[in-house]
Design goal:
Layout (H helix, E strand, L loop, with lengths): L26 H14 L4 E2 L7 H18 L12 E2 L8 H10 L11 E3 L3 H4 L4 H4 L3 E3 L8 H12 L1
Parallel strand pairs: 1-2, 3-4
């Protein structure tokens, strides 16, 4: 999962700050993510460049906790961080980072996965297009993750 353009829209009328000056993800985007986790039991893997900054990760978790306190749901389970991120030291094409992460699991079987991102390299880069394109939900950067995107992600994960 990416953050910018998925949980944090940018451009257009996107409002990015709360009254306290902290980054605030729109409830609509968090609701869509929560519905994916609730329907599938999926585990989040952070692929966003936000993964490389402890303060950015804390900001993500703060948004998850704020949303869960008001609405409940599985985002409240993310308190201490993410169990999985793509490689912190590697910053390639997002598609390549995701495939490298998937291939790093030699002891476990990943039965199903979906990429939530606004980066169209996931579906356009030829290197891993056949693997990534059918498992990618591309969001609109100015809107972020929607209920319709969540439905598509759920269908991909439950196949």
């Amino acid at each position: 999962m990416d953050i910018d353009g998925v949980l944090l829209p940018f451009g257009g009328d996107a409002s990015l700050s709360s009254a306290a000056g902290e980054t605030r993800f729109p409830d609509e985007c968090l609701s869509a993510l929560s519905s994916i986790l609730d329907a599938t039991g999926a585990v989040l893997v952070l692929s966003s460049t936000w993964r490389c900054s402890s303060s950015a990760v804390k900001d993500i978790l703060r948004n998850f906790q704020r949303y869960a306190a008001a609405h409940g749901g599985p985002l409240g389970d993310y308190v201490d961080g993410f169990d999985h991120t793509t490689c912190l030291a590697k910053h390639d094409v997002r598609q390549w980072e995701i495939i490298d992460w998937l291939r790093s699991f030699t002891d476990e079987v990943i039965e199903s996965w979906v990429a939530l991102d606004d980066d169209d390299s996931l579906v356009n880069d030829p290197k891993h297009r056949d693997e990534c394109a059918p498992r990618t939900v591309l969001t609109s950067s100015a809107i972020g993750l929607t209920a319709s995107d969540a439905e598509k992600a759920i269908r991909i994960l439950l196949v």
